[in-house]
Design goal:
Layout: E1 5-9, H1 15-32, H2 44-56, E2 61-68, E3 71-81, E4 92-100, H3 109-123, E5 129-131, H4 138-146
Parallel strand pairs: 4-5
Antiparallel strand pairs: 1-2, 2-3, 3-4
Amino acid sequence: MTPDTYIRPAELRDVAALGRLGALLMRVHYDFDSRRFLAPGPHSETGYGAFLRSQMREPDTIVLVAARSDAVVGYAYAVLEPLSWQDLRDEAGVIHDLIVDPAHRHAGIGAQLLTAVLDAFAARDVRQVVLSTAAPNTGAQRLFERFGFRRTMIEMTRELEGG
């Protein structure tokens, strides 16, 4: 645990920082595979910030920030989702985003965010939590494995001609 970093629910004052980190998440994934992931554009920060702002109001959504000296240095976005026949899974907590500013990585902040999300789901009696990581993101995969996550699905992508 990083003593000078604390985790708290996201607030409206965090929207610009959430947008900046969300756009960073987009860039990192686009750099992993530009054919699979959405290309970041000039409005990615405001768009992602607006999206996360809208999610903060949803009762089944968790948006947490990691703050150091009141500066947002990371966030997690997760949703309690219902049974999904499409995904062949029961009701589950789904972690969609977890990112830490590169200048603050390797200090345990990702682990703090992940612990807080898991605690929030446990407080809601959620029995299963799932997430996806980009195949090249081995650092994140090691973090998730340390927390007991196991590999269950492999996404495969193919582009179609003229599509």
